[in-house]
């Protein structure tokens, strides 16, 4: 949401943030809240929303309806889909932005998701896998739906670029940032891919969100110098640090029982988009959303075996480094959102 708002602001649109819960700049201190024309706290504790017909919940809904009268478009992000469903009763048209299709998790109220998906004037999905899920489940109008990954903003690209570590030691260095788990049932079970690479004498740099419940990775790092586990950094410092690596690595784990699982295949991680955004090619396993992105944007390799992984590393090490990628920033794609707005507004006149 923040990256979309930033791109819209840069194109001259006025964006007001209306939020529930913890303010963005408290959760992510690096976020510049000045991009918003105004920031409105709904003051909506989750316990007030547990009973939709309770007076506290109705007061929150009324606040949304009253506020919306001042705007041309209500751009509503899901999670919870309850707010998007409430926004269907706003006077301006509503765009339902699905960053994470909750039905794939299997733990949401599909009634609200269905109402928001069917009733909205326009829809945004982060990947084709998620859009296909909405088509299959709810029969959405694809003519009012656009694909928009959570691309990095162009002005977030570091001006400072670090020297490649491989220029010093002659060994490939791969970055694999993001959440990791020790559960073989999870797509984020990176351990097999990491073990394979470090056994080949190739450096892997992990940036886990949390350094707990990852003991097998920590044990491997203690035993092998080629696995480096880093602490979390302020976001811009993290982006700068990425530039010292040769490529990114997202070894999604897809067990046989999940080969057709939409949740497994629908995920397109922010970290993958950030690695591409700072100029790293990315090697990914055949998770549909990630693989499709890498192929369509020609920003790396999709691999299916250890042999293919080593061949991809060898090939990418020969490529020119620090090449500025094309068509991978939010500013490249935000015009389709503005076009969606214009189409919806024209139909309302």
Can you offer a commentary on this structure?
This protein has 349 residues and is α/β, with parallel strands linked by helices. The chain folds into 2 domains: 2-154 and 330-348, Rossmann fold, CATH 3.40.50.2000; 158-317, Rossmann fold (3-Layer(aba) Sandwich), CATH 3.40.50. It has 16 helices and 12 strands. The strands form 3 sheets. It has a 6-stranded parallel sheet, sandwiched between helices. It has a 4-stranded parallel sheet with strand order 3-4-5-6, with helices on both faces. Strands 1-2 form a two-stranded parallel ribbon. Helix 1 (2-10) crosses helix 16 and helix 5 crosses helix 6 (110-119). The longest helix is centred in the C-terminal third of the chain and has 19 residues, at 330-348.
Overall structural class, as computed from helix and strand content, comes to alpha/beta
Q: Which overall shape is indicated by the principal axes computed on the Cα atoms?
A: globular
CATH superfamily of the largest domain: Glycogen Phosphorylase B
In CATH, the topology of the largest domain is named: Rossmann fold
Q: Number of DSSP helices?
A: 16
Query: How far from one another are the termini?
Result: 27 Å
Largest sheet: 6 strands, parallel
Overall helicity: 40-55%
Number of strands: 12
Give the topology string: H per helix, E per strand: HEHEHHEHEHEHEHEHEHEHEHHEHEHH
Task: Give the count of structural domains.
Answer: 2
Q: Quote the beta fraction.
A: 5-15%
Task: Give the name of the CATH architecture of the largest domain.
Answer: 3-Layer(aba) Sandwich
Mean pLDDT equals 87
Q: In angstroms, what is the radius of gyration?
A: 21 Å
- Name the poorly predicted regions: none
In the sheet with the most strands, the strands line up as 9-8-7-10-11-12
CATH class of the largest domain: Alpha Beta
């Amino acid at each position: 949401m923040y990256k979309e708002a930033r791109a819209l602001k840069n194109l001259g649109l006025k964006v007001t943030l209306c939020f529930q819960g913890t303010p963005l700049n408290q959760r992510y201190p690096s976020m510049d809240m000045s991009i918003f024309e105004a920031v409105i706290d709904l003051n909506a504790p989750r316990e007030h929303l547990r009973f939709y017909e309770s007076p506290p919940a109705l007061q929150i809904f009324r606040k949304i309806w009253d506020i919306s009268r001042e705007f041309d478009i209500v751009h509503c992000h899901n999670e919870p889909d309850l707010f998007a469903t409430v926004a269907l009763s706003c006077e301006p048209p509503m765009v339902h932005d699905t960053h994470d299709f909750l039905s794939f998790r299997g733990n949401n109220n599909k009634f609200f998701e269905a109402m928001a998906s069917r009733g909205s004037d326009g829809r945004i999905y982060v990947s084709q896998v998620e859009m296909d899920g909405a088509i299959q489940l709810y029969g959405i109008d694809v003519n009012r739906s656009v694909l928009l990954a959570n691309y990095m903003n162009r002005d977030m690209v570091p001006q400072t670029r670090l020297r490649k570590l491989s220029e010093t030691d002659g060994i490939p260095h791969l970055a694999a940032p993001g959440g990791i788990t020790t559960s073989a049932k999870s797509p984020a079970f990176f351990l097999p891919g990491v073990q394979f690479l470090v056994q080949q004498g190739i450096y892997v740099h992990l940036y886990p969100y949390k350094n707990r419940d990852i003991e097998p990775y920590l044990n491997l790092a203690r035993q092998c110098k080629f696995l480096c586990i880093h602490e979390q950094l302020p976001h811009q410092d993290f982006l700068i640090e990425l530039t010292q690596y040769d490529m990114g690595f997202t070894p999604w784990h897809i067990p046989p029982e999940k080969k057709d699982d939409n949740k497994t295949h629908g995920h397109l991680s922010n970290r993958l988009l950030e690695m591409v955004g700072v100029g790293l090619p990315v090697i990914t396993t055949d998770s549909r959303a990630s693989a499709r992105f890498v192929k369509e944007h020609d920003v790396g390799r999709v691999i299916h075996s250890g042999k293919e992984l080593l061949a991809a590393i060898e090939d990418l090490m020969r490529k020119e480094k620090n090449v500025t990628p094309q068509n991978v920033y939010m500013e490249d794609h935000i015009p389709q959102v503005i076009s969606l707005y214009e189409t919806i507004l024209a139909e309302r006149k």
